Amino acid sequence: MSIFARPHYTSDATQFIDSLKAAKPELEAEQRQGRALLWDKQIDRDQQAQGQAANVAQKPYVYQTNADQR
Asked: Are 36 and 30 in contact (CB under 8 A)?
């Protein structure tokens, strides 16, 4: 036996996840469905470009009043 060989260690968290997946095999598919519902969206590039073009430049100091508008 090599001095570098170690017994196989699995953490408590890994053991819990493995047992959860064994008890509920459809869990990963449900997670993928949830992700697709919330995150995997098609981006409308035209609408994104219009939104970026509509941005207004912010003043260096937002709370400064304009003396010209009295």
From this structure: no
Q: How far is CA 62 from CA 1, 31, 40, 58, 59, in A?
A: 70, 43, 36, 7, 6
Q: Is 50 helix (H, G, I), strand (E, B) or coil?
A: helix
pTM of the model: 0.46
d(CA 9, CA 7): 6
3-state secondary structure at position 69: helix
- Give residue-wise pLDDT tens across range 2-29: 777 778 889 999 999 999 999 999 999 9
